[in-house]
Amino acid sequence: MYLNSEQVNLVGQVFESYVQEHHQKQLEQILAENDKDAHYSLIVNAMTLFEANMEIGEYFNAFPNEVLLVFDNALRRAAMSFLQSSSQQGKFTIKQNLHARITGLPVCPELTREHIPRTKDVGHFLSVTGTVIRTSLAKVLEYEQDFMCNKCKHVITVKADFEQYYTFSPPAACTNEEEGCNSCKFTCLSDISSPASCRDYQEIKIQEQVQRLSVGSIPRSMTVVLEDDLVDSCKSGDDVTVYGVVMQRWKPLVVDSRCDLEIVLKANYIAVNNEQPCGVVINEEVRKEYDEFWETFKNNPLAEMRFWLVCALKFLACLW
pTM for the complete prediction? Predict the structure, then answer.
């Protein structure tokens, strides 16, 4: 089952209104950035969003991949509306690569996991907590190709199939309704070097946190797929919470060969939980003391050495 056009319009309108009401400042900051081709994220709290319209929450739980795509389209419309209504249009530039990142899911067994999801969770949007044990190199992913019908020259855009490791399958038949063409022969037009058809891609592996397991249990792990601005958002050893859709994928089928299914998490947002802020804060008084020293004793190395010794003692006193 899929969302019908009426449901798509409802979801888009509700999310566009929600962004304009709750995230106008963040949207303004994104539009003020100089790089119009970069990818930008708008972090949305799921609890607040679903409170605005509970029906959206039901659609999101049932069709997460479709709803996330509708969210991104609605986010671009909200950005365009803001730009058109702004009195400082010269200050902003429209951004096409906007992503709605969903966080703040309710803490309940149906949506939050401290253990690796299983087969029953496929197709559901979950938050999964774990430790990053491996990160791959960032790669360039080609996610769409253009195919031209050899008979009527109609061009069809085909997206890479996530469930088959982003492979492409040529169209089965021409979809040109005006010409009534049913040809099944196509020529690929896409250039893999075109930035418009590529995006950043990375895979990481997360493992269940040992402290959350019962005695004698072996921690399980799973692959997490990161795209666009989520790439390089964490490193090995980080404790993370990944928000995304549990999906399954398999390599292209081969005759007389076994098909191995793999459960993966396609990330929509990733939060690093063990980032610690710096514990030393330099206030204006300390900064002024530094400036006065460099001005007064810049030609006296002995005074410089004594000063740094005093600073070291002050730093150790703060730590104690």
Answer: 0.77
